[in-house]
């Protein structure tokens, strides 16, 4: 705007400040948006890295907990291949004892279904001291092992950093599967021991294994697990674990296809 022949610079200065403010606002918004995108990208990369490591499924004794699910007296005559379930459970709890891996066991409605079968444990007895402490048996009515009591136990300092869970027991399509899904939902790395998981009906077992694997669990065998935990023949407990393995291999594995065919 001009006043006579003189140009009024007040309007120009005001206009210039408005442009500057608008530019600053745009730049800040752009910078903020860029930082947000970078933060999201970084977060996604970190999550992808964790997921990738988790999906590989490597195990170490210091980052692992064993879960024994409901292998109880009343279920023994009902379970498909129950003898192998019991002997393999004993092999696994012996490994836990040797490598000082904590074991959490559950019992479904003990009053009705009885206690955990003693032969499932190392040395054929429910001996917490023998299992190297930090081991508990929890009673439950919830199908999943992830009860309030178990959740509280896992929050203790001793279990911090133990993000891998080795899960075995019965029934595959009910308590084991629901425990598996709860653990996966919490971000745990779950390993299902296929020769120590069963149901009353083979069909239920097979579908449950497929379901758990598709959800993100790793399927493995007891022997494969044992050697994964040691990683080397130079491991200090290699001879002990090898002796346990040889003894376990001498027992019939009812899940072996050749064994099943010979007993039809």
TrEMBL record:
Pfam families: Isochorismatase. This is Isochorismatase-like domain-containing protein. Belongs to the isochorismatase family. Residues 65-223 form the Isochorismatase-like domain. SUPFAM superfamilies: Isochorismatase-like hydrolases (SSF52499). The lineage of its organism: Eukaryota, Sar, Stramenopiles, Ochrophyta, Bacillariophyta. It comes from the Eukaryota. It comes from Chaetoceros debilis.
